[in-house]
Amino acid sequence: MGKHRSESRHLSLGVAGLAVVLALWCSGDTAGTPAAPTAGATTHVSDAPGLEARIPDAQGSESRVPDDAAAPTARAAAPGDAASPASGAREPSASPVPSHSPRSSGPATSPPAGAPVSPPSRLVVERIGLDQDLMQLGLRPDHTLEVPPEGPGSPAGWYRGSPAPGRPGPAVVLGHVNATGGGPGVFADLHALTPGDEVRVQRADGTQALFRVTHAERYAKDAFPTMRVYGNTADPQLRLITCDGYDPTTGSFDENLVVYATLVDT
């Protein structure tokens, strides 16, 4: 089987005038002898080396939750942390998730500008059996983005520098596919989402935002469309991000998988 080795990628993000570095990776088994994913598997969120771009000030910047909002934050990944591919994982397909949009049930109305914002606390995606707490991701002292823990059962994380789900702009949620010690990560089945699937984001105050998947795209790590993924949008949107494109000959991952969703109810 092909060997799965660590890979670091870096992507500079600017949200509301703040440039940050997205530093997530697809890493190998700590034992050094992991099995290669089999067909259909995705991998966890990956950085793209040398891929840097700035994003202009985000629309609806008032929607972001302050750094001291009451919600759990991620720990910075410790040096040497690594995740192993799921023992029953499938090698990713080369074909992208269908990119056509579903029938619209009409635009949803986001909370008015300046309305109180409650941070997201839970992510529910019935299509793939996902119902799990969300953590908040901030910045480390070196301005790289914190990443969710890689242990079994670890949640996905919402980057609190992006709009809160349900506010104008793209809310960014990142998740691993593999967990340390083997087994799937929180976004192991993200590749199975198709247009029309619903994504519910529950908030700490008991409210929720309902999104509907419009399409998904796979992007080569050296041609990541930063503005398309993280750029301003007038309406509330959601980005679920992991990585894909496992290459058994190199043991690395060459693509990012981005699922796009639009708010339909709140």
TrEMBL record:
InterPro entries: Sortase (IPR005754), Sortase_dom-sf (IPR023365), Sortase_F (IPR042001)
Pfam families in the record: Sortase
Region (Disordered): 53-120
Biased segments, Pro residues type: 109-119
Biased composition (Low complexity): 68-90
Residues forming coiled coils: none
Keyword entries, A-Z: Hydrolase
Superkingdom in the source lineage: Bacteria
Record-level Gene Ontology MF annotations: hydrolase activity
NCBIfam families: class_F_sortase (NF033748)
Descriptive protein name: Class F sortase
